[in-house]
Write a structure and sequence with these properties.
Elements: H1 2-16, H2 19-33, H3 35-48, H4 52-64, H5 68-81, H6 87-99, H7 103-113, H8 123-134, H9 138-145, H10 155-167, H11 171-185, H12 190-195, H13 197-213
Length: 214
């Protein structure tokens, strides 16, 4: 049984996939096994050629391994050296700052994105709202968290929004969002049910608790 399996893999690699595909697969496997190798390789690439792409790729790689300090450094350096209004870089910088608990800086860079049409209702605006709550600016936080509440999407963020509302004595609004997500989950395809499994489980648990206490 083992030999035919090996033979099938070899055939796939040598006949079906081209060299570029095999190289990409090998690179992805190596990144999973040794995530810091990707950072080291991209660091060397940046040393060789200090370009916008190389620096952003390195910053993204630091984000992937949860090294937010270094991600912040390289995103900021990119803004200094290239385009200070780069939406992609600012969005990812905001994420890194939030995960690093730099909430005041989240607000600083968030203000720079408010004029961009893509900000309204985006996950970046949602993070901006979360930072506002961390700084105890509850009314402003709600204003920036609410736009994420779009039916049949943003399930994880909407669950967080519901928790925010429950924490801040808007119980009916929070319960309504939980009920909406629960009902929407019934119509998810198998892939989405797997993808959002933990969110659905938590929603079902919270919904059951609401009914117990009502």
């Amino acid at each position: 049984m083992f030999l035919p399996l090996v033979g099938g893999i070899i055939y796939l690699l040598t006949q079906v996939l081209n060299r570029r595909d095999v190289s990409k697969i090998n690179s992805n496997v190596t990144s999973i096994i040794n995530p810091t190798k990707k950072v080291k390789d991209l660091g060397k690439r940046l040393e060789f050629a200090d370009t916008y792409k190389n620096r952003v790729d390195l910053a993204d790689a630091y984000m992937e391994i949860g090294d937010f300090e270094n991600a912040i450094f390289h995103f900021k350096k990119t803004l200094e050296d290239h385009n200070e209004d780069d939406v992609y870089v600012i969005e990812n910088l905001i994420r890194a700052l939030f995960f690093n608990s730099n909430y005041n800086e989240v607000l600083l860079y968030g203000e720079r994105l408010k004029k961009d049409s893509s900000f309204q209702g985006s996950k970046t605006q949602f993070i901006f709202g979360q930072a506002l709550e961390k700084l105890n600016k509850i009314d402003e936080a709600e204003t920036n968290l609410r736009p994420i509440d779009v039916r049949y999407s943003n399930y994880e963020e909407r669950l967080l929004l519901a928790k925010f509302l429950l924490r801040n004595n808007k119980v009916e609004d929070g319960e309504e969002i939980i009920e909406e997500i629960f009902q929407e989950s019934k119509y998810m395809n198998k892939m989405n049910r797997r993808l959002y499994r933990s969110t659905i489980v938590e929603v079902e648990k919270m919904r059951a608790e609401f009914h117990v206490h009502s």
